[in-house]
Amino acid sequence: MNISVIIPTLDNPIDVIDVVQALNKQLLLPTEIVISDSSSTDDINELLQDIDSKIPITYQRLGRAYKYDRLLQWLKSIPLFKNFFSNIPQGRSYPYEATNQGAKAARSEWLAFLDATTIPNKSWILDYSKIINAGDAEVVFGNTKYLANTFFQKILRASTYGRYGIETAPGSFMRKKDFLQGYQITEGVRSGGDVDWKNRVRENFITVTPKDSYLTYPNLHKNIYSCAKKFFIYQMHTAIQDISHSIKDLYFVLTLIFSLILIPKWNAIVGWEASPYFMPHITKIYFISIVLILLFSILSNRILLRGSKKPFLQNVYKISSFIVIAFVVYNWNNYLAGWIEESVWYIPHITKIFIILMLFASFVYRGIYFPTRHNISHSFLFPINWFYVGLLGVFLDIVKAPGYLVGAIISPFIKVIRSPGSQPKS
Question: Roughly how many angstroms between the first and final C-alpha of the chain, as a whole number?
Answer without folding.
Answer: 24
